[in-house]
Amino acid sequence: MRTKKEIVIVGGGIIGLSTAHFALTHGWDVTIVDRIAPDGDNCSKGNSGMIVPSHFVPLAAPGVMGHAIRWMRDPESPFSLNPSLDLEMLKWGLRFYLASTKAQVDQAAPLLRDLNLASREWFIKWSEDGIDGGLAKKGLLMLCATKDTLEEEARLAQQARDLGIPAEVLSPRDIEILDPNVTLEVQGGVYYPKDCHLVPGKLIASLRSHLESRGATFRWNTHITGWNCRGSNIVSLKTTGGEIAGDEFVLCGGVWTESLSRDLRLKLPMLAGKGYSLTLPMPIERPAVCSILCEARVAVTPMEDQLRFGGTMTLGKPNSVIAPEKIQGIIKGIARYMPRFKPQHFEGVEPWVGLRPVTPDGLPYIGRTNRWNNLTVATGHAMMGLSLGPITGQLAAQIIAGEKTTIPIGQLSPDRYAS
Length: 419
Fold this sequence. Notes:
This protein is of the alpha/beta class and about 425 residues long. It has helices spanning about 15-25, 65-70, 85-100, 100-130, 145-160, 170-180, 200-215, 255-260, 325-335, 390-400; strands spanning about 5-10, 30-35, 50, 80, 140-145, 170, 190, 195, 215-220, 225-230, 235-240, 240-245, 250, 270-280, 290-295, 300-305, 305-315, 350-360, 365-370, 375-380. The protein has a domain at about 5-45 and about 200-270 and about 360-410: FAD/NAD(P)-binding domain.
């Protein structure tokens, strides 16, 4: 006779692994099911590794759709849409447009602040407990090539301070003093001291090892083919490796969530936000502080001896086809701010491509659904998947346990597009 609750988690990225961590802490048996191989790649592995309390504005914000439409004429632009007459994509676009309001941003900002700050504390604790991701608590620089952008970032910095997030507007000389390891051509920037960075691949490997040592079971190379249900309860997963029974199920499927949940008759609209990263093994300069090159929309992260540049957001259906013009856009953007980095430094560097799960309002889906008693959804984090990993795992475990969540998450209901 079983005495422990059996938790089946669909998805082995940072969200699924974080959920497994907290489920094990509750004393439950945990099985993680993933479509990739143990050494395979997912969106958690090649990203920019940033933990960002500074990012309190969701992707759906005033002006974003206008930028996307204007940038569609530029194949090297950092943000674009793959136009389609597909009905679901058109619905997603309309919902995104309707969500891109100041009122939505004002409502979402305190929640994103609380989620990111809570995750930051968990990352610190994990580091102290031996889950080694190379955590560096050195802050984040928003670097501005133009005075107009600096003024815009300064206004955002004031909003951050109003929310209790420390932020400081810096001159070029201030930035040079803060990080003398890199040559920059900028008008100034904003420094967020609470932000952090780490090495995503190192974190994922350490977290997997930690979970295995605590008894978690991994089912790799396993594709979901359906669900066995009885009444309002899910009984088991149908997979290419056989059925997997459980008491509770957690759906952390990233960009594949919508298709995985179709047989469950759930409405979880989502597009894939394709992005790229380039990692230099021996950079000519290595900054100490991670940064975002604002106009170019490029993230720069030191990762031990390496330096990673990440950027672009192309919204559309999931595919991993690399667009060379987007890679060229990233490289050109870097040179605008960091003049010592030349195109030849990136020759032979293999681009990494990742698919971020993007909801129409830019906020994740976290919570129970009304349709199924034993299903928790935790996905749709867009560019903040790594940053929000630990707190999402904690919230999912609290939901399964029937506990009050440490942060109110009514705004994140997976049923918000059900009607």
